[in-house]
Amino acid sequence: MLFTYILYTKNLLLSIKNHFDFFGFWCKIELIPLTLTLKEVIKISRSSFVTIKDIAEKAGVSVNTVSRALNDKPDINPQTKEKIEKIAQELGYVKNVYATMLKSNVTHTIGVIMSDSSNPFFSEVFKGIDKAARENNYQIIIMNSEGLYENEEKFLKTLLERRVDGILLFPMQKSYEDIQELIKEHFPIVLVGREIDGWNVDEIFSDEEKGGYLATKYLIEKGCKKIKMITDQLYNSASYGRLQGYKKALKEKGLAFSENDIKICEGIHEGYHVKAGYDKTMEMIRKKEEFDGIFCYNDLIAYGAIKALKENNLKISQNVSVVGYDDIAFSRLIEPELTTVKVKKFEMGYEAFQMLYKRIKSKQRDNSSTRKVLDVELVVRNS
Amino acid sequence: MLFTYILYTKNLLLSIKNHFDFFGFWCKIELIPLTLTLKEVIKISRSSFVTIKDIAEKAGVSVNTVSRALNDKPDINPQTKEKIEKIAQELGYVKNVYATMLKSNVTHTIGVIMSDSSNPFFSEVFKGIDKAARENNYQIIIMNSEGLYENEEKFLKTLLERRVDGILLFPMQKSYEDIQELIKEHFPIVLVGREIDGWNVDEIFSDEEKGGYLATKYLIEKGCKKIKMITDQLYNSASYGRLQGYKKALKEKGLAFSENDIKICEGIHEGYHVKAGYDKTMEMIRKKEEFDGIFCYNDLIAYGAIKALKENNLKISQNVSVVGYDDIAFSRLIEPELTTVKVKKFEMGYEAFQMLYKRIKSKQRDNSSTRKVLDVELVVRNS
DNA sequence: CTGTTAGCGCATTCAT
DNA sequence: ATGAATGCGCTAACAG
């Protein structure tokens, strides 16, 4: 074990390092020059970061001269500035942004709460956020709620403690109270990927109904007579919208809607989408339900469905057609290549940050709000 | 447009909100009680966060009583505590961690720099980091370097400015100077996924040579006589190690090694791995190079290779066998299911954080370092 | 052009 | 059990 003691006597500063072991100990005594005060020594022993005060002392100027020099403020002698910059360089000075933040009340940080950043859909959206944030010199604290409301709540608090300038939230449809609280306070927040009716808050999301409509219409026009839909929990606007589109297309084409054709995934865990798609399809086959088309809530579910169909020797696109949603990168790699609804993932993230940024910048904390709807399109491939 | 002015007169504080529009403007005058000072009003207009001072005033106690109450310190009257907690609740108090950090010099934040968090390999590793960090109540600031050294350098600085307690870095093999600087200063840092010889720094990485060896040996034992390797840039330890393993297996089985069998991907951009795997394979076919096996640096490259082989009507596993690396989730979904080297991705992230945490906690900033090697295994599937 | 001073929000002695 | 005072590192207002 290693201990460090610091003693202050009238004219001597001792730093004693004792190395103990089972058989005794020895100690090493270091003399520290008297120019350092006790406080400074403590500081040194605690943290190795150099402060503007250190620079100021070394340069023989005041701290604020250093501050001005390092922040490119006017009213400074070029030579002084140069000298200070040189010393800062030598000492390896790195600004402590916390001190700055404490004064300025601005952190240049946003919080991002999503359910699972390793899900390809989210990670594409995140890329957009990341890009936009970097361009504006903003940092990101990311939190994965794993779809759990408790986490969402906890993270929200953590982010506020960190005084993020704003928050991008991919909400579970359940979380109402705390978010509404924030909105009431006009805290900068943008809801991403979900539409929440009647709230006075900035939102960006896809035209889900159109997506569901396009997918279903495509299946019908391809000749499908009985189209199943495998969807996610129905209490979020995305699945709701896609379902509406599905219904709309059925109605338009004169096909009957049946509750039994809607299969809802349950459980949230690592890779559950693929598994759910697989399980639901297997179940439909086992129960000998008739169907010649499946509209899946997302591509991952579609992968699972395709896997199940293959295992039962059903020909994709001939016996059963499958349409996914999102158009993640892998949908071009699986066999057959997946027909899917393309969502502007990167744009969603990029735009979301822009909206948040605008909100942060405008001191205007009023009751107006903007909502942006992103267009979707059908990508026809071989499924 | 909406402007807010604050006027301070001898006995009157005016907050004037002027609503301009094209046709004129009107203004609303609010009287603010004299108990507030100008400074306080400015504060209110600037930030809506309540401080312990606000609570103290409302509770009629001192700030430190509030501080003690809220931090579960001893020496406090239970009733006072309860009262303070209630007021804090009412006012919607959220602690400003920056102030705390400024005092404590501890941020409970780590920085993570990786090349692309949307790459499935990295996102799995990140999950492990995230899990471990949450368990220890640490926050994460993540940065995507996009494989660019300039970014890595810049981000490192940003993270230091943010006074992260430690850094997890997935290094490009190029970046030496600045990292070494940090290591010399005994700043807590753990290098993840890459082994760097001769550095005195904590590292965690996979047994790359074993992975390359297992993959190649498998191909040979399956009957392959001419095995190509499509790899990434060779200046990182991962590709180097896998190449060594490849060579070792060839030698052991009496097959000749040829420089021409090593195909190196170039370019770094969105989805370049898949494309590179595809391009390199197409090129080999076009040039009529002979081969009956491909060992790919990662699964993404393997997907591209498989796509190219299929397009040329080559039967995977019969005409040409393919082995990938990493075993990302999608390798079970493509057709044929990919034989690959399974890497402990989640564990790598999880352990990496543990190592960093240990380093952060032990004030001991000495010259010792630990390196952890994770085992790999071959997962035989149908390619 | 530069130094002095005050204060951001909080936690920590040290008194009382 | 509670309050007063101090300082973390930095910036900004003000004075010289």
Explain what you see.
2 copies of one chain form a homodimer. Helices cover 42% and strands 21% of the residues of chain A. Chain A has helices at residues 38-46, 52-59, 63-70, 78-91, 97-104, 120-135, 149-161, 177-184, 208-221, 237-252, 272-286, 299-311, 345-361; strands spanning 2-8, 13-21, 24-31, 109-114, 139-144, 166-169, 189-192, 202-206, 227-231, 262-264, 293-296, 321-326, 339-343, 371-374, 376-379. The first copy, chain A, has a 6-stranded parallel beta sheet with strand order 5-4-6-7-8-14, sandwiched between helices. Chain A has a 6-stranded mixed beta sheet with strand order 10-9-11-12-13-15, sandwiched between helices. In chain A, strands 1-2-3 form a 3-stranded antiparallel beta sheet, covered by helices on one side. In chain A, β9, α10 (237-252) and β10 (262-264) form a beta-alpha-beta unit. In chain A, α3 (63-70) crosses α4 (78-91), α9 (208-221) packs parallel to α10 (237-252) and α11 packs across α12 (299-311). Chain A starts with a strand and ends with a strand. At the A-B interface, α5, α6, β5 and α7 of A face α5, α6, β5 and α7 of B. The first copy, chain A, binds a DNA duplex (16 and 16 nucleotides) through residues 39, 43, 49, 51-53, 61-65, 67-68, 71, 73-77, 80, 95-105. Chains A, B: This is LacI family transcription regulator. Chains A, B: Keywords: DNA-binding, Transcription, Transcription regulation.
State the distance separating the first and last CA atoms of chain A.
65 Å
Helix content of chain A: 40-55%
**Biggest sheet of chain A, strands in spatial order?**
5-4-6-7-8-14
State the major sheet of chain A.
6 strands, parallel
Helix count of chain A? Answer: 13
Q: Quick one: how many beta strands of chain A?
A: 15
| Low-confidence parts of chain A | 1-47
Q: For this structure, what is the CATH homologous superfamily of the largest domain in chain A?
A: Response regulator
Q: Beta fraction of the residues of chain A?
A: 15-25%
Pfam family, one (chains A, B): Peripla_BP_1
InterPro entries (chains A, B): HTH_LacI, Lambda_DNA-bd_dom_sf, Peripla_BP/Lac1_sug-bd_dom, Peripla_BP_I
Keywords (chains A, B): DNA-binding, Transcription, Transcription regulation
Protein name (chains A, B): LacI family transcription regulator
